[in-house]
């Protein structure tokens, strides 16, 4: 009973801790109020600790399960690798077996055929009985069976078999009207999904002498099929699938870029399928090779009647003899040309892109300046199909859906092979699209933490490093190609810069950072941008054009802040001297004024810690010079008038207030003090502002000169006592 109560209490505690509105502080407060003493708290602590240990055990168990899934995935990958190795091994064995068949076996085979024929005559009707039985069996067995065509059938029997096939399969009549085509083997199969090995459907396979037809069952019509797919044998690869109970008696058909897995009824039928597929492919390859040899065989030399053999023929020196022009033949009987389509399939399957392009270059070099008779055109058609497949694979390698790790160098292999295939424009487009996705991903993965300036340092490092690496890789890959690719790169760089400025502005300007922080961030971005000049890429004008609107907004916003602060101080102005109380404070103020560019500030200091200037004027001087210094860090030519107008507006607020105070003040001592502050503004502050602006911009500002040279900036009516500010 106590154990049941303990379990229910633990369950209730777990639910309470897992609830969405759980607050630890409120929970501890309630627990302290409800407990009778220290013992209850200790027991509750033990329950929570036990719950934590249980949670840790569950976490370990989940980690272990995930680890087991990882091991199973690795095992599946190893199975896939073994299948690819097995496929390569089978192709190598086929090649070696074809090469090892000696031509001397042909006479022996002929002799053996003659002996078999004589033995058949002596045996009476045995062979004929077998042929009759074979004819009675038919080529469409009962479900689950498989049958093989008799090699002894004549042309009429083969045509009859094909006609029967056309009657049994819907939708394939227009696909099987090739002259000389006949049925070799057929049987029932079960198709499985390649990824999850789930059963898909029942099918029936029909192997012709040059193709494989796959048809699906029609449950409503017994013995009838519907056309599903047709695969030429010269583009088909057969792979034996290792038995892995309960998945057994399976084999895989590879038709780039897809593959299908079928299961036979038993191991014997599976072995028959594998054998007959290989034999039929071998026979088709041998037939094609013989046809090409016959087409490429040179004709006998034309018989030319010798003049010496005809003594009655008169010599005619006036008419030159016209030699007969014989059509040039192209020799395609070489072994590497015969196996070229299959070798290309193997290279594509094994991702040996360089080897595939080397074979294509070798073929193009061999066929260069040669005529194009029908055999050459047929070979070209087969090769062009492989070129299309290879191009699609290389384009997929560069697609953004692939892994973006490895940097720009990871794309070099696919880009170089596409350029060799004559797809330079497509390679450039896909390369730049891949790098744009990589840059976008790198920017998104940056964590926004800490100070803004620290984030901007990381952002600039990631972006400009990626841009620099991309530019160098682009120059390496596309050196010597069409100059249009370089124009595409400049357009891409501008687009990438726009992506960078979006992230930059969102963090610096949209978050309303101070002008000093914004100035430091822009300075960092400019410095990184100037590093691209080492490779001849100047994007400074682009970053200026993209940032000009945000910087104008920041200058306008900070100008309004200074004007409002100045007006607020003006409203509380008492026109009294500053007393800094301590020599340290006075020394600090002198250093600040020296930093601002005011070198003669000593003449405005009095005895002890007094300063013969108003607090408002001193604060205005520091704030205005600080604004000018930060604005000059942001300066570029497009901001010249914006900065100049902002400075004029800020200065006008101060000088208008001084002018108005001189007009309204009646006390002689205060009036003299105001005049001293006005002299400081006109004779000290304004020249410093003008000089610093000219140093930062590189040219003087006429508006600032007019402000300094004017004795009064605004003529106020002497009888008026109202400020126009």
Automatic annotation (TrEMBL):
Keywords: Cell projection, Cytoplasm, Exocytosis, Protein transport, Transport. The gene is EXOC8. It comes from Leptonychotes weddellii (Weddell seal). It is found in: Cell projection, Growth cone; Cytoplasm, Perinuclear region. SUPFAM superfamilies: Cullin repeat-like, PH domain-like. It comes from the Eukaryota. One of its GO terms (biological process) is protein transport. Component of the exocyst complex involved in the docking of exocytic vesicles with fusion sites on the plasma membrane. Residues 312-322 have a biased composition (Acidic residues). This is Exocyst complex component 8. Residues 182-282 form the PH domain. One of its GO terms (cellular component) is growth cone. Residues 116-159, 285-322 are annotated as: Disordered. Pfam families: Exo84_C, VPS51_Exo84_N. Belongs to the EXO84 family. The exocyst complex is composed of EXOC1, EXOC2, EXOC3, EXOC4, EXOC5, EXOC6, EXOC7 and EXOC8. Interacts (via PH domain) with GTP-bound RALA and RALB. Interacts with SH3BP1; required for the localization of both SH3BP1 and the exocyst to the leading edge of migrating cells.
């Amino acid at each position: 009973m106590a154990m049941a109560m303990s379990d229910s209490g633990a369950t209730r505690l777990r639910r309470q801790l897992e609830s969405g509105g759980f607050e630890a502080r409120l929970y501890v407060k309630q627990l302290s109020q409800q407990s009778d003493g220290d013992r209850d708290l200790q027991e509750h602590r033990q329950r929570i600790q036990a719950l934590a240990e249980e949670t840790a055990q569950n976490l370990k168990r989940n980690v272990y399960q995930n680890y087991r899934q990882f091991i199973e995935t690795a095992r599946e990958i190893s199975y896939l690798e073994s299948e690819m190795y097995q496929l390569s091994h089978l192709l190598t064995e086929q090649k070696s077996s074809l090469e090892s068949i000696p031509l001397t076996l042909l006479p022996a085979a002929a002799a053996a055929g003659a002996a078999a024929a004589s033995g058949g005559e002596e045996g009476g009707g045995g062979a004929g009985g077998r042929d009759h039985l074979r004819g009675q069996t038919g080529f469409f067995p009962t479900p689950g069976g498989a049958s093989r065509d008799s090699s002894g059938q004549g042309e009429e029997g083969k045509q009859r078999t094909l006609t029967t096939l056309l009657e049994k399969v819907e939708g394939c009549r227009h696909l099987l009207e090739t002259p000389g085509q006949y049925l070799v083997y057929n049987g029932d199969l079960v198709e499985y999904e390649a990824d999850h090995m789930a059963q898909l459907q029942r099918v029936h396979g029909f192997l012709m002498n040059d193709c494989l037809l796959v048809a699906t069952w029609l449950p409503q019509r017994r013995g009838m099929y519907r056309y599903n797919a047709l695969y030429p044998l010269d583009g088909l690869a057969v792979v034996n699938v290792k038995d892995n109970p309960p998945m057994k008696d399976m084999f895989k058909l590879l038709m780039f870029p897809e593959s299908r897995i079928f299961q036979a009824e038993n191991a014997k039928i599976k072995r028959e399928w594998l054998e007959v597929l290989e034999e039929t492919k071998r026979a088709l390859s041998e037939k094609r090779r013989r046809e090409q040899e016959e087409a490429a065989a040179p004709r006998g030399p034309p018989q030319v009647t010798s003049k010496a053999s005809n003594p009655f023929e008169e010599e005619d020196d006036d008419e030159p003899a016209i030699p007969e022009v014989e059509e040039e033949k192209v020799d395609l009987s070489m072994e590497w040309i015969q196996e070229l389509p299959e070798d290309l399939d193997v290279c594509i399957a094994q991702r040996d892109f360089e080897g595939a392009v080397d074979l294509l270059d070798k073929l193009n070099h061999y066929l260069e300046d040669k005529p194009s008779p029908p055999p050459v055109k047929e070979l070209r058609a087969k090769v062009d199909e492989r070129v299309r497949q290879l191009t699609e694979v290389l384009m997929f390698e560069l697609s953004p859906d692939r892994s973006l790790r490895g940097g720009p160098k990871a794309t070099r292999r696919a880009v170089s092979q596409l350029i060799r295939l004559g797809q330079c424009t497509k390679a450039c487009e896909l390369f730049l699209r891949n790098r744009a996705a990589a840059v976008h991903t790198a920017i998104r993965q940056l964590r926004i933490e800490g100070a803004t300036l620290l984030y901007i340092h990381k952002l600039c490092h990631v972006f400009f490093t990626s841009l620099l690496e991309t530019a160098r890789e682009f120059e390496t890959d596309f050196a010597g190609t069409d100059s249009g690719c370089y124009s595409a790169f400049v357009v891409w760089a501008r687009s990438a810069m726009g992506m960078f400025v979006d992230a930059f502005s969102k963090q610096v300007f949209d978050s309303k950072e101070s002008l000093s922080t914004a100035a430091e961030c822009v300075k960092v971005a400019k410095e990184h941008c100037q590093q691209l000049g080492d490779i001849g890429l100047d994007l400074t004008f682009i970053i200026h054009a993209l940032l000009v609107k945000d910087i104008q907004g920041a200058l306008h916003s900070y100008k309004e802040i200074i004007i409002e602060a100045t007006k607020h101080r003006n409203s509380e102005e008492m026109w009294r001297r500053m007393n800094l109380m301590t020599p340290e404070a006075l020394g600090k103020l002198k250093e600040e004024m020296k930093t601002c560019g005011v070198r003669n500030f000593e003449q405005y200091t009095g005895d002890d810690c007094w300063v013969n200037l108003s607090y408002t004027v001193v604060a205005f001087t520091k704030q205005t010079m600080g604004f000018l210094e930060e604005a000059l860090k942001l300066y570029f030519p497009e901001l010249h008038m914006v900065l100049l107008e902002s400075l004029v507006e800020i200065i006008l607020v101060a000088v208008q207030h001084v002018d108005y105070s001189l007009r309204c003040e009646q006390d002689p001592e205060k009036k003299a003090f105001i005049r001293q502050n006005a002299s400081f503004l006109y004779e000290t502050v304004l020249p410093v502002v003008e000089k610093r602006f000219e140093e930062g911009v590189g040219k003087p500002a006429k508006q600032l000169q007019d402000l300094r040279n004017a004795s009064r900036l605004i003529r106020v009516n002497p009888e008026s006592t109202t400020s126009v500010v």
